[in-house]
Amino acid sequence: MQLRQCHLRGNTRAFGSARVCQRKYVVARSGGQQGLGEDVLAKLRAAEEEAARLKAELAALQSAKGVPEDKVEKVEKVRIDSTDNRETLFGGGPRSAWLSEKDVEFFSGPAGAREEDASTLEPEYKATVTRRLLIGAALTAGAAAFALVPTEALRPKPGKPLYFYLVSLLRVQDLLVDCKSIIEDADWEQLRGALSRIEGPPNNIRSTLDSIIALIPDSRTAARVTELSADLYEYLKSLDYQQYFDSPFRSKANSGAQNAQYAAFSLQSLQAAQGKLNELLALVPKDQLQLARDQMSAGY
């Protein structure tokens, strides 16, 4: 097929006929390429048939002669455990998992054992699993029983008798009587000196209260004494107005109005502390309290 020459200027028919001829030429070439693709597909089919035939012959040859076991590649199963790649403070290297492989095997058995293995059906294996479950249950029950033990039962017993610590409370009771006149005079330095003898030596009010609580025989009484001790200590701390009033002029002398305000607050705290102390002394054993009073009368 020949193409006629087309002219763009002054010949519209020639331009139209050239377009028609070009379409026919493209169709003709496309038909030739389609024939070439069928030839390639035929060759591919023949190659696949030949590969299947060779594979069948190789399988028959291996089954007839047998393949040694050492020639067979063994693929190890990869076990994935969670690890932390952060460096530890002392080890320097990456930190291992929080449960090691031995810890996991203690509860679940060896990694190679599976449900379909015959070894899991043996009596020895079942006895091992049962023993591990019993150990885990016993540890859990022990931890739960330990959590139910009251904190007071775990408190160490003081080495001295109860009346020894009650003597300190009686001394604190006398100091609180003296603090009333000190507060009314607004002598804050002298008040802080009295409070230092209450909180520090020789009375050590906080440790003394803890020792008294530990020596109370009845649990309900000990619980009530614990509440009173907390309230008493809080009121003793509030006798110093500086614990609760934030004054930017502490280095300067207080005015009369300020002293009156601080004295009223401290007197309320003093009255509350005396009430809590008297209620606490009423709960301790009477014989121990009398021994403490005897020690005070002897000048101890």
Describe this structure in words.
By secondary structure, the chain is mainly alpha-helical. It has 3 domains: 1-59, no CATH class; 98-147, no CATH class; 154-297, Four Helix Bundle (Hemerythrin (Met), subunit A) (Up-down Bundle), CATH 1.20.120.290. It is 65% helix and 2% strand. The protein has helices spanning 12-65, 101-108, 123-147, 151-154, 162-184, 188-199, 205-215, 219-237, 256-281, 286-297; strands at 84-87, 94-95. It has a two-stranded antiparallel ribbon. Helix 5 (162-184) crosses helix 10. The longest helix has 54 residues, at 12-65. Mean pLDDT is 75; it is low at 6-35.
Q: Roughly what fraction of the amino acids lie in strands? A: under 5%
- Indicate the CATH architecture of the largest domain: Up-down Bundle
Helix segment tally: 10
Look at the structure and name the CATH superfamily of the largest domain. Oxygen-evolving enhancer protein 3 (PsbQ), four-helix up-down bundle
> What class do helices, strands and sheet pairing give?
mainly alpha
What is the 3D form?
Answer: elongated
* Tally of structural domains: 3
Largest sheet: 2 strands, antiparallel
| Radius of gyration, CA atoms, in whole angstroms | 49 Å
What is the percent of helical residues?
A: 55-70%
Instruction: Let me know the average pLDDT.
Output: 75
Distance between the termini: 138 Å
* CATH fold-type name of the largest domain: Four Helix Bundle (Hemerythrin (Met), subunit A)
- What is the succession of H and E elements? HEEHHHHHHHHH
* Main sheet: strand order: 1-2
CATH class of the largest domain: Mainly Alpha
Write down how many β-strands occur, each being a DSSP E stretch of 2 or more residues: 2
Low-pLDDT parts are 6-35
